[in-house]
């Protein structure tokens, strides 16, 4: 009990007075590029446009935080813990809002289920879109870096499961990736992260296989992919699920089996999209597909340069 009281005193007295004293820890139990990704950064364009801290378009107009996204609703259902990125005192919270509710029902409560933590000296963090019933803190509670706050959800104004993390100083949004300003050509000299997440201007969320072109909702739910199919499958389909694509980006899809290439194609993206999927496939012939191991590859290219790539294996029996 004495130890906990002493720790609380240390936490409150160590609140950052300056940006130089503030360092954010990664706020999720996931690995970037594997089972989560940064879907949107903070908007740095003061006009009606939208520009992230690297002068790219992985944001939207007026976005005041960083969105850490899960690949699908199945990952959300499995549970991904949200952790305190900095120590402080819980200033406010909300729970009880459903995940995936129509946007028309969240007016004035766009953050959904969330937590605001007072870091001291005018600094605060806000965690939005947490899963209903998952919050593990109470108002007035002191939290340390890494303490569990809840789980990633899709409450409030959220089209997909993600954590929206905001940092503010005296009420003004601060971009932890570039608190002193941003440049198009170089990484910022200073960030407010303990370990700065690498910048990615877009990428691939998932690669998958099916015996037909799946619906977008099946992909977003995490229900589309099949890692094995029967030899008499009516078709073989490979799809790529992407984020942050721009007009004229190329999604290169290919599938090869025991007897060589089954299908391959470059698909050109017609417009910028926050998230999208593209699929190609081949119908079965009059004889069954050769049994064995099939390898799929999806590559996202921008101006001829590889942005991201994923491979996967399909087994036909």
Model description:
- It is an enzyme of class 3 (hydrolase).
- The protein is mainly beta and 317 residues long.
- The protein folds into 2 domains: 2-173, Glucose Permease (Domain IIA), CATH 2.70.70; 203-316, Immunoglobulins (Immunoglobulin-like).
- It is 8% helix and 38% strand.
- It is built from 3 helices and 18 strands.
- The strands form 4 sheets. Strands 1, 2, 4, 5, 6, 7, 9 and 10 form an 8-stranded antiparallel beta sheet that branches.
- The longest helix is centred in the first third of the chain and has 12 residues, at 2-13.
- Mean pLDDT is 92; it is low at 1-18.
Q: Mean of residue pLDDT?
A: 92
Number of domains: 2
Helix content: under 10%
Tell me the β content. 35-45%
Query: What order do the helices and strands follow?
Result: HEEHEEEEEEEEEHEEEEEEE
Largest sheet: 8 strands, antiparallel
Distance between the termini: 61 Å
Categorize the overall geometry: globular
Number of separate helices: 3
User: What is the C-level CATH assignment of the largest domain?
Assistant: Mainly Beta
